[in-house]
Specification:
Elements lengths: L2 H24 L12 E12 L2 E11 L3 E14 L2 E16 L27 H12 L9 H4 L2 H26 L2 H6 L1 E8 L4 E3 H15 E16 L2 E14 L6 E16 L2 E18 L11 E2 L7 H5 L5
């Protein structure tokens, strides 16, 4: 499979993952959410292709007005006559917290301040948008053209670079969340620097020291990234992505949980054909800290996240990655 075909496959798998989340929410099947409160946020989608098989890890945040939970989907996909399809899904539970968010009475807001409420099935406002999208698709001037007619070699090079930068962003999250120093070091150039607040200095030292610090002070951590923006100029690129991080302290008497939102502002360089991070700055936008919610009892047959190689992703992921 050439690189362009692989990128097309990765995008098809991503769209299938997102479509399944949307269907789940609109059918009211989101775990721990009420029938009209389904909300599943998918991020950090990392996919590797192995011939007719593919393996993906996706971070999830789901729930409703009373609860919020974080976890991951470990999916196996197969390519058949009808394209790429999900064949096996494992859900890994990483964290859970209670919420106390009042529901506003939108009926009295008036037209000037009205915002639609989500629902299930045809009651969800997005159903109309999707119907209009299908209706307009027939008018597209690109209809019927092959990919070679609509994409240039420069576009292909940009797509390949964006995919490489995306993989660096999600690899950082997995490495921190699993406490994997070797993986963390692999995404930084040898002379890279990082400003992270908890550590400011050479990125290779950060990779060696911070995972141990994280594991000593936290029961778990979870970094969900979105809003990825990259600007590429030859062998150099800059990027900004939004991150929401959740963690729970190891304090035995009064554990706390915190949710931190901010942005990673990055500078990337391609050296010897390989993209890595040369500079990373974490910009904090807001933080919420409160006593930790009691976790629900663990259930037989469920998989749970962990630091280190006991986490389910290491048994699932292809060994050459």
């Amino acid at each position: 499979m050439n690189m362009l075909a692989e990128l097309v496959a990765v995008d098809a798998i991503k769209q299938d993952i997102l479509a399944r989340a949307r269907t789940q929410d609109r059918q009211g099947d989101t775990p721990l959410a009420g029938p009209a409160d389904g909300f599943t946020r998918i991020s950090n989608i990392w996919t590797v292709i192995r011939g007719p098989l593919a393996f993906s890890e996706s971070y999830t945040m789901s729930g409703g007005k009373d609860v919020l939970r974080g976890g991951r989907y470990l999916d196996r996909h197969e390519c058949g006559a009808d394209g790429w399809r999900l064949k096996q899904r494992r859900h890994v539970e990483d964290w859970f917290t209670g919420l106390d968010i009042p529901t506003p009475d939108l009926a009295i807001a008036g037209a000037a301040l009205f915002a639609p409420r989500g629902g299930t099935g045809g009651q969800d406002p997005a159903a109309l948008l999707h119907a209009l999208g299908h209706a307009r698709a027939a008018l597209s001037p690109e209809q019927g053209k092959t990919m070679s007619e609509t994409i240039s070699p420069k576009d292909v090079e940009t797509l390949i670079a964006r995919d490489a930068l995306h993989r660096l962003v999600v690899t950082y999250c997995r490495a921190i969340d699993r406490g994997d120093s070797e993986m963390l070091a692999s995404i930084f150039h040898c002379d890279a620097v990082i400003i992270a607040g908890v550590y400011n200095g050479p990125a290779q030292n950060f990779a060696r020291e911070v995972p141990a610090i994280v594991q000593a002070g936290l029961e778990m951590c979870f970094h969900s990234v979105a809003n990825e923006w990259f600007e590429i100029d030859g062998d150099h690129a800059v990027g900004e992505c939004y991150v929401v991080a959740f963690n729970r302290s190891r304090d035995a008497t009064a554990p706390q949980e915190s949710m931190v939102a901010g942005r990673y502002v990055d500078r990337f360089e391609r050296r010897d054909g390989l993209w890595k991070i040369s500079e990373r700055v974490f910009v904090e936008d807001w933080r919420s800290v409160r006593p930790a919610s009691p976790p629900p009892p663990r259930q037989d047959g469920c998989e749970y996240g962990a630091f280190g190689r006991i986490d389910p992703v290491y048994r699932f992921w292809p060994v050459d990655q």
